[in-house]
Model the fold of this input.
Amino acid sequence: MPRKVTIVESIHSANDQLAGENSRRLRKAGLFSVNMMASPGAGKTSLIEKTLARLTPHYSIAAIDGDVATSIDADRAAEAGAIAVQINTGGQCHIDAHMLRNALDELDLPEFDILLVENVGNLICPASFKLGTDRNVLIASIPEGDDKPYKYPAMYQDVDALLINKIDLLPYIDFDMDYFLQGVKMLNPGLVSFPVSCKTGEGIDAWIDWLEDQIKGSKTT
Ligand code: MG
Ligand code: ZN
Done:
């Protein structure tokens, strides 16, 4: 049994090393990169569409979409104005640093200002496979329920921002925002969070402002 633990650790350390290489490569090319993680159906693709609609007039953006089988999300990102690359993970439930590296090979990196990575919909392993992106963002959503920080703590522990999507559904769903935020605070004190609705557009401004601040901050350091 201990042997199995050793193997898992070596997989993760190999991944971390590749993530470091991705990070250096992206920075050298002048890209600001964001890894977007969430459960299936939380609204990653819709949020990427909203983000692209706001930022493509000012920035050149690439999107890399990880999916188990289809290219539906990459097609949507391309329609919304990004140069999109699809990663079909062949059944794997997360993107790893090696898959991202292969996807980066498909892009002329210096042409872009921003890279948005849509991870595979999953609240477990994306937390333990670093990609080398500048920021890690988690998208929660109201229909998932207010207990998710308690049930999937690793996803909440290591992210730089939290979007709470589908707040337009709050009147129809038993979702105790205080209980939810209490769990978040316990796991990741001071985590910046944005209640948003892709449907009504509420809260999107604050998210875009934060993202642009991060991009500008990365240029001056
Ligand atoms: Mg999607
Ligand atoms: Zn996985």
In short: The chain has eight helices and seven strands. The pocket of zinc ion (ligand 2) is lined by residues 92-94, 122, 125 (CB under 6 Å). Residues 2-219 form a domain with the Rossmann fold fold (CATH 3.40.50.300).
